[in-house]
Amino acid sequence: MNRPQTDEYAQYYEKYISLIPDGDLMRVLEEQIAEYNELFEKVPEESGTYRYDVGKWTCKESLAHVIDVERVFAYRLLRISRGDETPLESFEQDDFVLHSNANGRTFKDLLDEFAYLRRADISAIKGLSPEASLRSGTASGNRVSVRALAYMMAGHAEHHKRIFAQNYLA
User: Fold this and answer.
1) CATH numbers and ranges of domains, the chain
2) Contact at 8 Å (CB) between 135 and 80?
3) Residues 105-143: pLDDT tens digits?
4) Alpha-carbon Rg for the chain in angstroms
């Protein structure tokens, strides 16, 4: 799957897509599973409720957010790749986090969910025809292509991996 052109997604998502190098997107998506596991493998559970600043999500809430966005991007990718032209609404990330019960879960549970979800997404992306990867639809009021959603998925996870390393686990 080739990198999307800048007219295939809203400018806001460039910050995610630009984090993904040219090359094998599937490899990046697969490697992120192990990278997340390595990042959190020695983090004690009590660090899960750490907030690096007032008003910021806890470490576990941030991890739940990565999972939620993965799921939302995958849903959009499925709908658009199947030719559904229904405009897809945005979602309120703060409300999702508020109701996630992330702080009541273990890191292992959250990481397992991310891994299962990501593997399913990789399978779905691998099954796309070249034509399907170029389809576009409307999400959050903006045009977006299927391949842009796949890159956004990887880029969003990369973005938060860097935030975890810098602000939560440093």
Assistant:
1) 6-168 (1.20.120.450)
2) yes
3) 999 999 999 999 999 999 999 999 999 999 999 999 999
4) 16
